[in-house]
Write a structure and sequence with these properties.
Elements (H helix, E strand, L loop, with lengths): L1 E8 L4 H16 L7 E6 L10 E9 L2 H8 L2 H14 L3 E7 L9
Antiparallel strand pairs: 1-3, 1-4, 2-3
Helix pairs in contact: 1-3
């Protein structure tokens, strides 16, 4: 299993961000082919000091090929375009392989 992780820094207007993200973006993103599940976490703090993060979203796919195919889909393009209408400058993304407790692909 692989995933795309999106980390969002704190927006100036959290209520407007939440409306755009939860009411519009997530339903659009859910239409992406091959997307198995999405997990969104609201960041509440850090062990020490402040955290710059507001939300973290993890989008899971079966494998690298299905994730890359999803990224090339019109549905993902529409979701990405919409994301930039409210989260430009707030989001950083990376891809990752999910591993078990011995470091092997899960």
């Amino acid at each position: 299993m692989v995933k795309l992780v999106a980390m969002f820094t704190k927006p100036d207007d959290p209520e407007a961000f939440d409306r755009a993200y939860f009411d519009v973006h997530l339903p659009l993103n859910a239409k992406t082919p091959g997307l198995r599940r999405t997990e969104v976490t609201r960041v509440t703090g850090a062990p020490r000091g402040e955290t710059p993060y507001y939300l973290v979203a993890e989008m899971y796919y079966d494998d690298e090929a299905s994730m890359r195919a999803a990224f090339a889909s019109p549905e993902a393009a529409e979701a990405a375009k919409q994301l930039m209408t409210f989260a430009k400058g707030l989001v950083s993304m990376y891809t990752a392989v999910v591993v078990d407790d011995r470091g092997r692909p899960a």
